[in-house]
Amino acid sequence: MFKRTKVTDGTATGQGPDAENWDGKEVGFRKKSKVPGVMITQYIEKLPEGKSHPDFTRKPIALTIQEGKFAFFKAIVTGDPKPTVVWSRNNGDVSDPARYQSKYDPNSNEHTFEMPHVKPDQADTYKCFAKNEYGQAMVTVVLNVIEVGFKMTKAPQQQAEVANCNFKKVLKRRSKVVPKAEEPEKKEGEIDPKFWELLMSADKKDYERICAEFGVTDFRWMLKKLNEMKREREEEQAEFVKNLSDLKPIHINADGTASFELEFDLLDPSSSIYLYKDGEMIPYTKELGDKMKHCLRKVGRKYIFSMRDLMPEDAGFYQLDVEDVNMFSTDFKMVDFLVKIQEVKAMEREDAVFECVISAPLSKLMWFGKNMPLEQGDKYDIEVSEDKLIHRLVVKDCMVVDKGIYAACAGIKSCNAWLVVEADKGAPKGKKTARKTTRAGGSGTDLQKVAQEQQQILDKEREERKEKIKAAREAAAEAAAAEEPEKTADSGAGKDKGAAVKVERIDKTSVAATTTVAGDSGSGHSAGKASGGAKQDGSHADAGGGHSAGKASGGARKDGSIADAGGGHSAGKASGGAKQDGSHADAGGGHSAGKASGGAKQDGSPADAGGGHSAGKASGGAKQDGSHADAGGGHSAGKASGGAKQDGSHADAGGGHSAGKASGGAKQDGSHADAGGGHSAGKASGGAKQDGSHADAGGGHSAGKASGGAKQDGSHADAGGGHSAGKASGGAKQDGSHADAGGGHSAGKASGGAKQDGSHADAGGGHSAEEASGGSRQDGSLADAGEPGITSGLSDIHAIRGQPAELTVKMNTDCDGAWFKDGEPLKSGGGISITKDANIHKLTIHSCRDTDSGLLRFVSGDLSTEGRITVGDVPEFDEDDLHKFSKPVIVRVGQNAAFKMPFQPQESLTVSWFKDGTELKDGGGVKIVREPNHSRLLLRDCLRSDSGEIKIQLKNPFGAVEATSQLIVLDRPGPPEGPVETVETTSSVIEIKWNPPKDDGGSAVTNYIIERQERGHSLWTKLGDVSAEKTSFRDRNVTHGKKYSYRIYAENPQGLSDSLETADSIMAGIMILSGPPGKPKVVSTSKTCINLTWTPPEDDKGVPIIGYQVEKRKKDTNQWLALNAINEPIEDVNYAVKDVTEGAEYEFRVSAINESGAGDASPPSAMACAKNPNMRPCFKDPEDFLVVRAGNSVRVKISYEAEPPPHITWLKDDEPIAPWINVINTEGMSQLVIPSSKRSDSAIYTIKAKNSVGEAFFDVEVRVTDEPKCPGPVELEQTVYGKVAVSWVPSPDQELDDRLYYVVSQHDSNTRMWKTVADRLFANTYTAHNILPGIEYHFRVYAKNDMGLSDPSQSPTWGANSNRVPISSNGVSSMEISFERPPSILVPLKVHTPPKGYQLYMTCAVRGCPTPNVSWYLNNTCINSDKNYYITNSCGVCSMYILRVRENDGGEYRVVAVNSLGKAECSTKLTVRD
């Protein structure tokens, strides 16, 4: 059981007691809080400096909690001085410290309201008030409590409540889907209610799946019934929500939670939302991060239900209801894996497959790879079999990075496996292998076989359900055929068929006898009456059953024959006939809650009363003998009375069917008078007889009167049933003939004719609401129209207490009469006057009192009329309440307006609310609450248009009273009325004028704010404001010639209106335009640009020129196109027109722009064609020498300019180039490409460019070479003292490379350093000078060309003296020699200019002891650890190698050698060529 809070609506400002002011003070000024839902009242208009009213920085949060748990609310309040916090509840007090505890934590500034062991009766709306001397803040919060164990413990209590008629407590919230524990045993083949609930919330594409699941195969029947149910459900939903959409069934999220979503708008924000699982209500929280399992949170219009910590028992049928109406249903199923995914080992660039089989069909599984959700795309294929049991994940083009754990999730069930990707060892390094067409993986089992077996199981279960449904339908059809009653032929209105009626007779000893007889009266087919005929012998007269709300009465007999009344088919009455002997007369039972009373008898015969069908009264007639008097059951609040008799005859009164009266006729002999049941507020009366004949009156079907005719003999006079508000009367006869009156079919009149013989006079059914009445006589003759009669009788009236009341009866003749009240005669006196004026009789009550209420009756002879008078008061309001209600209610736009009006509880009181004369109905943004002692009106989200007169009307039968109030909805004003008029414009002043806004927003406009924008600028500047009385403004800060736009805002206390803006810019002063500039001249043309120049205008009219506008016109067209906007003027007197088409011809003109705009245009220029001018070919910055390493490609790029485009020819040493040499010509450039060069490709290549203007040549020397081979052996020979001739064998490349030369390095034992002593030697000898004796010399010879140095050729040692005799020191010790020295650069770096993409070696020689540490720098950045550079240091030779030179490798390179004794460095520059 879910205990919900009663939400009460508040009262508007000035209406009723103010519940929020718990100290009784008057409300001050309403303030808006930053926290939604907080109401702030400020007592004073302006707060002192540094002081503030209370406010909530954290408000309490609504709570739904289980019974017995610890419930608490927390709030944080601010304000200066510090507010006092008080808690209260709407329906009860919080003074019990055992149940309610208020606490305050000064450290966190939190106010806590705690309820330990919360009880269901504590569910309520709680309020938190914070108050200080400057104001108060109030917030409400709802507590809902879920009762525990109510199903078992509440059952006896509910039974007791039903016994005590306490139905409100019995009607508890229950889902339409019954919980499994309470689910009744389903019949064979019965469809589960979940089927329809799921269909109403599902998409159409899911209908087939749901039908297959529940075994439904008749789709046409399903769709027809579903549409009917949907219409009913939508009508129910419309009472609580609107815009229901976006229904998303429950699904598993990536974070392991399950959720479903839907969107709707609550008509009443206080409506309660309930969640059910399998028909049982489940608790939930509205806050994220709470510890509860279920959560329902709102995001905008969207409601999201989520469930965490999923378990198998969470599977079930979930529903969301608003109040008592279901909004959404979804089924959460748990499936299992029959075959799980297995580990997959795949080769690189191969596809990997994971496969699984589940136990129930699912359209989609959640696949994860390395904890990330996977979707269908270029990398992954997600496949589902046709039966939705087999699911596959294909990882395409596997790479090593794809290895990891992959998982498949179906609800809370999941399985995972590894994907192992092995690298392809046979693939070449650095190259990507081709993608393989094979697939790796799979489950290793026959998935199709497993899926087929599972599908067979599911199909078998589905077929069993179908068979059960089919069997149930066949059984129902057979039962319906067996129970179908035998068709009988009826003779009645509209059906001319005979019938055989089976009559069952029941006597006091419950002995039944059955007989079939003829001579029946047809059944009244619709709310009619069927009466059996009258017989004097032993024959049988039956009355067919009244088919709908009718009456069937048995005939009257004088012997022992049987007279039965057929059963009324619907809410009808069956009454037994009247008999004078020992025969049996039965009356059909009354159906419900009526009163049936037997007649009064003086002998031992039984008196039976048929059951009153609905709160009616049936009374048996009064008899003085031993005869039997029965009264049929009063069908609805009617009265049936038997006739009065003086002998032993039988008088029956048919049941009054609806508030009508049926009365038997009066007789003086033993004859029988029956009155048919008054079917609806009508009166049926039997005729008067003096003999033993039978007079029946047909049932008045609807507010009509049926009367039997008058007879003097034993003949039979019947009146047919008055079918609708009519009167049917039988004719009058003096003999034994029969006079019948046909049924009055529609508010008509049927009257039988008068006869003196035995002939038959029938009256057909009258068709219009006239009245035919037979007179009443003592001799049995017919009373004509001249007899006394009542032309205007009494009716029920309501009289106001203390006011006079008058009742009038008008007769057709002047005759006397008497007045009765509640059966007592009345006379004049005691505040009552009875007067008679000719045929008008009046009863006047001078001042009505409560005692005057009662039933008044006027009697004149045998005629009478009656009416009831009821005395009461007109509703009234209390003067204080009326005064309070009359105060206007003032709210802002978007707020709610509430009205409340108390009144005294009264019966039959109708309360209506009106706005501007139109009655308001409950629904939408209007909520009307009707309580016994007051009524409230709530208008939600008020708009400005809702302002107007609000009226409440109380109405009862005695009159009506009204009270009026006003609703004022405040809003910011509407925009000022336009258009903006320009009153004056000069070079220094602009004056504008406007009109006040049509709608001031409910409060007067205080002022207008004016803003201005200068043309060409985007900034709006506030100029100032003017009072509300003034609707004009003079702008004195303007510049002559400039244009301005203005916008005006109206302001009231609620804010600023929308702006009124000027339609066009307003110029300060008059417009002064400049004269035309000079004719534009074409400076140059090209296919993409035309350059223009012009001269300023000769006459600028005294206004400075701010720029120019250029226009162009294409040849053979008339349209001039502006190349720049006026607000983007060209400031210079030249312009490059780039918006041209190659080959097209254009002319141009120019206009000067000043503050007033663009002036007159210049004369057009001469036609100019967008093409390049004719020119002789010329080459732009070509390179005339190119060195390429053999094997590399040769690219010679030559840029040129020429018009028209030239013909390009390449020559090699003045001969045509070989066919394998490619030539690529593009616009403005020609390239010669040799794919793989050889030394034989070295030559002088000539490019020749020729067009119609001339031709040009250019030679490029291309040298294809390689690093030279080292020279041959080196020989040393001394020719003269101090000189040594160094000679060597030439390098093998000397003959192939004419640019090869030699370099000689020298090393001596004195300096121990290698130094270059000769460079660029083209000979094979060199003479070394200054060769000293005693010093060893070494020489190295290098071959060098454009690609670099060869390996050296080493010379033999020169100057070694092996015969030298060592000189002893003769005991003199020598000093130790130290070889330590600071670093020095032996061979510095050289300048390099390699082409882009070529390799580069850069070397230098460094000496130092200890060995120095060498660092390389590029643009002052150390590159020792950069992998793009290969750096080595071998015996002081420091080298740096670049595999392929890039553009960013250019710059200054520096080598720094450092040891403990010092530092040395050298640098060079590297330039990278294209």
Which short descriptors sum up this protein?
seven-stranded mixed beta sheet; 40% strand; 1474 residues; single chain; elongated; 112 strands; mainly beta
Topology readout:
Layout: E1 2-3, E2 29-32, E3 39-42, E4 52-58, E5 63-66, E6 71-80, E7 84-89, E8 101-105, E9 110-115, E10 124-132, E11 135-146, H1 150-163, H2 167-170, H3 193-201, H4 207-214, H5 219-237, E12 241-252, E13 258-266, E14 273-277, E15 280-281, E16 294-299, E17 302-307, E18 316-322, E19 325-332, E20 337-339, E21 344-347, E22 351-358, E23 366-369, E24 372-373, E25 380-384, E26 390-395, E27 404-410, E28 413-422, E29 439-441, H6 447-483, E30 491-492, E31 495-496, E32 503-506, E33 512-515, E34 520-521, E35 529-531, E36 541-543, E37 551-553, E38 563-565, E39 573-575, E40 595-597, E41 617-619, E42 639-641, E43 651-653, E44 661-663, E45 672-675, E46 683-685, E47 694-697, E48 705-707, E49 716-719, E50 727-729, E51 739-741, E52 749-751, E53 761-763, E54 790-792, E55 797-800, E56 805-811, E57 818-821, E58 824-825, E59 832-837, E60 840-845, E61 854-860, E62 863-872, H7 879-886, E63 889-892, E64 897-902, E65 910-915, E66 918-919, E67 926-930, E68 934-939, E69 948-956, E70 959-970, E71 977-985, E72 990-995, E73 1007-1014, ...
Parallel strand pairs: 5-11, 21-28, 22-29, 34-36, 35-37, 36-38, 37-39, 40-41, 41-42, 42-44, 43-45, 44-46, 45-47, 46-48, 47-49, 48-50, 49-51, 50-52, 51-53, 55-62, 63-70, 89-96
Antiparallel strand pairs: 1-11, 2-3, 3-11, 4-6, 6-9, 7-10, 8-9, 10-11, 12-13, 13-17, 14-15, 14-18, 16-17, 18-19, 20-22, 22-26, 23-24, 23-27, 25-26, 27-28, 30-31, 32-33, 54-56, 56-60, 57-58, 57-61, 59-60, 61-62, 64-68, 65-66, 65-69, 67-68, 69-70, 71-72, 72-75, 73-74, 73-76, 76-77, 76-78, 76-79, ...
